[in-house]
Structures are given as C-alpha cells and as structure tokens.
Input
Amino acid sequence: MNQADPTNLWHYNSNLKVFANQNRKSMTKAEACLWKFVLSKKQMKGYQFRRQRPVLNYIADFMCKELMLIIEVDGITHQWQEVAEKDIKREDELKAIGFNVLRFNDDEVLEQINAVIYRIEEYIEEFERKAANHPL
Output
C-alpha cells in the first residue's frame, strides 16, 4: 500500500467531498468545541487542521497533513461492538498508509478539554522531536 505524506494527496477521496461538506455543517457539540477552541485557525502550535476530511474510504473528524495526524471524536455509538470493530479496521488502514490516530470521546472533549489539549500537544512534541532527529 502506498504511503501518505505531507507532500501528496493520493489518499484524498474526492468521492466523499459532498458528504464531508454535509458533516462540516452538522458537527456534534464535542467536534464543534474541539474545532472552535483548539484546532481551528492554527491555534494548535501553528499547525493547520482540516475538519471532516475525506481520507481513503473514510471521513476523518480532523486531519493535519503536516503532522500525519487524524483526530477522531467518538460519540456513544462508538461503544457498540459493531462500531468499535469498524473503528479498529479504519484505524489500522489509516496507520498502514502513515497516519497516526488520536481518539477522544465526547465527554473527554466537553468535560476535560485541557487533558485533550495536553495529549495533542504531547503528540506534536514527539513528532517534532522525531523530525528534528531524522537524518535528511
């Protein structure tokens, strides 16, 4: 399988564009909170996140191509076994092409936003550390 990277768009699925646009207009409360207060307008350490981004055959809640990071905000339905199994498959496929996935549930975003921010910042710091030590 090809690897996604910050310089290519082959993983972008234009067939899901209309559905992604609809999702942007009807985000959950937790998604809207994370977007408005944390991820929009390069608030997270200057990195650009996109919301409801088509990747492979999925729509990622949030994606930062530069960080190769996808952030998912899971509602209560993700506790159902069938949905959880699909989440695992989806995450495995995204990892196989080079993305990392952070998952938060609605309650974490709405009630513990500082912990969510901390986990995202930890990921970014580790990513930057690895990038700084990577031989060119």
